[in-house]
């Protein structure tokens, strides 16, 4: 089976390409230079040439703060680009697996968010991703939307790499302690999407719809930072103990509103496909080993 992976140079995209190749798929890896999803004609001609059996969309504008300033490009990629992929997939009768985000929620709920909870995005990034989801639902019944949160991995830019970089120059860090989530390992997100691809290859259908997928344990950004630095020291990536100070969102003075609760309820994907939440601490250990 031939799979088109868009956003192939991103942190999830690179993992998708690697795992799909390992599993024996015929992979068409399309980064931004190969395929500009904001241009409908580009997608039409690209799909016509490569004739994929399945599309996995890992392309997105994910710089949350910059999205407030660069609204046009954010909407062009996250909403319009997704709409273009859905339209061509519909025309060619190709299913679409799409990655979305916890930022479609406002974070005011005390428990983990289920797929049935009402969305209420706080900023341009979340709004654009929600609108992208909606274009898929309105266009293409044969889709999976996979919402993830707090993505980290050995590839690309993420919180783990930021903490390691800061730890080299500082003896202490101040990190927000009143925002909570369940970190999502990029490699595990990719594995999940490839499991779905394998099931589609076998059965020629899936239980289409929206699903949540993230790590197993609740943690604050501050708690996540402490675990990163603890494991990094154990692995010899950093040489000293770094003091991590807990601060509030208000003290951090973030220019962009972010959900205080980013926890996603993953019961649906477990019950439907038998896919369990990964241990983000174990995955973190593997990421640090790769980085070392």
Distance between the termini: 35 Å
Tell me, rounded to a whole number, the average pLDDT.
96
What's the CATH class, please?
Alpha Beta
Rg of Cα set: 19 Å
Number of domains: 1
Identify the strand order in the major beta sheet.
2-1-3-4-5-10
The CATH H-level homologous superfamily: NAD(P)-binding Rossmann-like Domain
Pfam family, one: RmlD_sub_bind
InterPro entries: dTDP_dehydrorham_reduct, NAD(P)-bd_dom_sf, RmlD-like-bd
Protein name: RmlD-like substrate binding domain-containing protein
Domain RmlD-like substrate binding: 1-291
Summary keywords:
Rossmann fold, globular, single chain, two-stranded parallel ribbon, 292 residues, RmlD-like substrate binding domain-containing protein, 6-stranded parallel β-sheet, alpha/beta, 46% helix
Give a short overview:
InterPro entries: dTDP_dehydrorham_reduct (IPR005913), NAD(P)-bd_dom_sf (IPR036291), RmlD-like-bd (IPR029903). This protein has 292 residues and is an alpha/beta fold.
How would you sum up this structure, described in words?
With 292 residues, the protein is an alpha/beta fold. It has a single domain, classed as Rossmann fold (3-Layer(aba) Sandwich), CATH 3.40.50.720. The protein contains 11 helices and 12 strands. It has helices at 11-22, 40-50, 64-69, 71-92, 124-139, 159-169, 186-203, 221-234, 249-252, 267-273, 280-291, and strands at 2-6, 26-30, 54-57, 96-101, 143-148, 151-152, 172-176, 180-181, 184-185, 209-212, 219-220, 243-247. Strands 2-1-3-4-5-10 form a 6-stranded parallel beta sheet, with helices on both faces. Helix 1 packs across helix 7 and helix 4 (71-92) packs parallel to helix 5 (124-139). It is globular, with a radius of gyration of 19 Å. The two termini are 35 Å apart. The mean pLDDT is 96. Residues 1-291 form the RmlD-like substrate binding domain. InterPro entries: dTDP_dehydrorham_reduct, NAD(P)-bd_dom_sf, RmlD-like-bd. This is RmlD-like substrate binding domain-containing protein.
């Amino acid at each position: 089976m031939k799979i088109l992976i868009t956003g192939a140079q991103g942190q999830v995209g690179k993992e998708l390409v690697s795992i799909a190749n390992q599993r024996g798929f015929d992979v068409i890896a399309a980064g931004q230079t190969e395929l500009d999803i904001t241009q409908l004609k580009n997608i039409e001609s690209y799909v016509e040439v490569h004739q994929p059996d399945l599309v996995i969309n890992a392309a997105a504008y994910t710089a949350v703060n910059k999205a407030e300033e660069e609204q046009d490009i954010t909407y062009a990629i996250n909403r319009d680009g997704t709409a273009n992929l859905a339209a061509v997939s519909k025309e060619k009768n190709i299913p679409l697996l799409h990655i979305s985000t916890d930022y479609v929620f406002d974070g005011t709920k005390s428990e983990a968010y289920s797929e049935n909870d009402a969305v209420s995005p706080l900023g341009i990034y979340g709004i654009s991703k929600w609108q992208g989801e909606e274009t898929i639902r309105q266009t293409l019944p044969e889709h999976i939307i996979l919402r993830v949160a707090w993505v980290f991995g050995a590839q690309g830019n993420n919180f783990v790499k930021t903490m390691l970089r800061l730890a080299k120059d500082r003896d202490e860090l101040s990190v927000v302690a009143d925002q909570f989530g369940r970190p999502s390992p990029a490699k595990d997100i990719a594995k999940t999407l490839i499991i779905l691809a394998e099931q589609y290859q076998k059965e020629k259908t899936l239980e289409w719809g929206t699903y949540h997928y993230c790590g197993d344990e609740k943690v604050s950004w501050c708690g996540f930072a402490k675990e990163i630095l603890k494991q990094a020291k154990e692995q010899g990536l950093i040489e000293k103990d770094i003091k991590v100070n807990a601060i509030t969102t208000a003290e951090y003075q973030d220019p962009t509103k972010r959900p205080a609760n980013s926890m996603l309820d993953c019961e649906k994907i477990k019950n439907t496909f038998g896919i369990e939440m990964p241990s983000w601490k174990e995955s973190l250990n593997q990421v640090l080993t790769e980085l070392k």
